[in-house]
Amino acid sequence: MLFISRRIDFSATHVYRVSSWSEAENKRVFGLCSNPNGHGHDYRLEVVVKGALNEKSGIVVNTTDIKHIVGSFVEDELDGKFLDRQHPYFVTHMPTTENLAGYIWQSLENRFENCELHRIRLYENHYLSAEKEKAALTRLTRKYHFCAAHRLHSDQLSAEENLELFGKCNNPHGHGHNYYLDVTVHGEPDPVTGMIVNLAELDEIVQKQVLDKVDHKHLNLDTAEFKDLNPTSEAVAMVIYNMLHPHLPELHKIGLWETEKNYFEYRGAGELS
């Protein structure tokens, strides 16, 4: 099976408001997004299709066909629109990133020939995205940032073994990174708010349970979690998952960017896909 990705960009305006709620309640749940005049985003849509190789042509599907199908849909329905005022679906469904991803999936799922829609991922901005696959819950990813130092050193290895395995990362004084943390939740968007989780509540949980404990800290010296655990990025991803899961039952996975080149991902028991 081969997978082919195509990216389409568009811009749109929307507002999050429940007309039957008070102004105070709308602001409490939706924050700045409740501005009645609306706000906008430059969205990035990634569409992935899959299929078998046509041995005669050497392709699965002409990428121009993907561009035409997705581009025509986006131009007709989404690009340049005030979604909850101009789009029939979003007049009655909150145009959250989760709901947008779900609608785009439903709209594109059966439009391709000689291939099958595999996944769509919609970026509202650098820090928020949603994705949808066949027979899978909608996933929402929120990105966070923290700075920390660590030393890679195992008490179960000799000094020579540590130096050979970890190299300069075994520096006794430690070294540091600008970490980026992807927190992914999954579920069905709430029929009223359009949210899998309230972003303000998610931010509060991540701040209290994780960022307050690791940001601008030396992981080996300043955190209880790594007092007896070598703070490799694999371990950091696993520990952060365990820090969040009791407070965030919708948690699907943790992604940790140690650098732009090094990415680590952890999913809890039962989270295999």
Number of strands: 10
In whole angstroms, the N-to-C terminal distance is 17 Å
- How many discrete domains? 2
CATH fold name of the largest domain: Tetrahydropterin Synthase, Chain A
Structural class: alpha+beta
CATH class of the largest domain: Alpha Beta
Beta content:
25-35%
Radius of gyration: 22 Å
Provide an overview of this structure.
- The chain folds into 2 domains: 1-134, Tetrahydropterin Synthase, Chain A, CATH 3.30.479.10; 137-273, 2-Layer Sandwich (Tetrahydropterin Synthase, Chain A).
- It is built from 9 helices and 10 strands.
- Strands 1, 2, 3, 4, 5, 6, 7, 8, 9 and 10 form a 10-stranded mixed beta sheet that branches.
- The model has no long low-confidence stretch (mean pLDDT 95).
- The chain is of the alpha+beta class and 273 residues long.
- Strand 4 and strand 5 form a beta hairpin.
- The two termini are 17 Å apart.
- 31% of the residues lie in helices and 30% in strands.
- The longest helix has 16 residues, at 199-214.
- The chain has helices at residues 23-30, 63-77, 83-86, 88-92, 97-108, 159-166, 199-214, 219-222, 233-244; strands at 2-14, 39-51, 81-82, 116-125, 128-133, 138-150, 175-187, 217-218, 251-257, 263-266.
Features:
273 residues, alpha+beta, Tetrahydropterin Synthase, Chain A, 2 domains, ten-stranded mixed β-sheet, 10 strands, globular, metal ion binding, 6-PTP_synth/QueD, metal-binding, 6-pyruvoyltetrahydropterin synthase activity
